[in-house]
Amino acid sequence: ELKVEQNPLFLSMQEGKNYTIYCNYSTTSDRLYWYRQDPGKSLESLFVLLSNGAVKQEGRLMASLDTKARLSTLHITAAVHDLSATYFCAGINRYSGGGADGLTFGKGTHLIIQP
Amino acid sequence: NAGVTQTPKFQVLKTGQSMTLQCAQDMNHNSMYWYRQDPGMGLRLIYYSASEGTTDKGEVPNGYNVSRLNKREFSLRLESAAPSQTSVYFCASSVNRGNTEAFFGQGTRLTVV
């Protein structure tokens, strides 16, 4: 069964700084996802990483995947206050019942960016 | 385009009461999911449905039942609510099992007292 660990779980940083969130997973996952969640809101899909070495960028966020190390990273460049949110990574778990492959989520990284 | 719609958005139940959370998607997706989110726990899969007419247990199915009514709708039922089921429930859908980028509803905040 897939286990997903994120770190840090809480991060407070200043605007303009760079930082990286790490996501380790325990067994093979077909792909790796990153989601954003604002307080009291739903989850918004940020990135889908499909293969080893995949790198995707959107604005100040860049995600990468190393399947050999079972590691994905979400890098924040020159952070701005609007990026304050909780970020989740998730991999695909295959349950014994077969059928659809549900997502297994990390516990999330609560990111606060202070002006 | 509404995407994934959940009802209700908020609910308070007394211990032992029953209720059904409704979920509908208009994206013609085959697969649908129910997750619960608890503080510091991330999201955990309760049940999923690969396609119309099929359902399977996820990580935390105890105390819940589901029905895939048709391709659009996937409901979650609590037969006898317990305080441990206080949580935020999210429904999600994806094209199919091979393309599992999941799109989430707005969530149902359930409190069991």
How would you describe this structure to a colleague?
The complex is a heterodimer of chains A (115) and B (113). With 115 residues, chain A is mainly β. Chain A is 0% helix and 54% strand. In chain A, a hairpin with a 2-residue loop joins strand 6 and strand 7. The model of chain A has no long low-confidence stretch (mean pLDDT 90). With 113 residues, chain B is mainly beta. Chain B is built from no helices and eleven strands. Chain B has strands at 4-7, 10-13, 19-25, 31-38, 42-49, 56-57, 64-68, 74-78, 87-94, 103-104, 108-112. In chain B, strand 4 and strand 5 form a beta hairpin. The mean pLDDT of chain B is 93. At the A-B interface, strand 5, strand 9 and strand 10 of A face strand 5, strand 6 and strand 10 of B.
Concise summary:
The complex is a heterodimer of chains A (115) and B (113). Chain A is an all-beta fold and 115 residues long. Chain A has strands at 4-7, 10-14, 19-25, 32-37, 43-49, 55-58, 61-66, 71-76, 85-92, 103-105, 109-114.
Index terms:
A: 115 residues; mainly beta; 6-stranded mixed β-sheet; 11 strands; B: 113 residues; 7-stranded mixed β-sheet; 0% helix; globular
Radius of gyration of chain B: 13 Å
Distance between the termini of chain A: 41 Å
Output mean pLDDT of chain A.
Answer: 90
Average of pLDDT of chain B: 93
Shape of chain B: globular
Structural class of chain A: mainly beta
Helix vs. strand class of chain B: mainly beta
Beta-strand residue percentage of chain B: over 45%
Helix content of chain A: under 10%
**Major β-sheet annotation of chain B:** 7 strands, mixed
Q: What's the SSE blueprint?
A:
The complex is a heterodimer of chains A (115) and B (113).
Chain A: E1 4-7, E2 10-14, E3 19-25, E4 32-37, E5 43-49, E6 55-58, E7 61-66, E8 71-76, E9 85-92, E10 103-105, E11 109-114
Parallel strand pairs in A: 2-11
Antiparallel strand pairs in A: 1-3, 3-8, 4-5, 4-9, 6-7, 7-8, 9-10, 9-11
Chain B: E1 4-7, E2 10-13, E3 19-25, E4 31-38, E5 42-49, E6 56-57, E7 64-68, E8 74-78, E9 87-94, E10 103-104, E11 108-112
Parallel strand pairs in B: 2-11
Antiparallel strand pairs in B: 1-3, 3-8, 4-5, 4-9, 5-6, 7-8, 9-10, 9-11
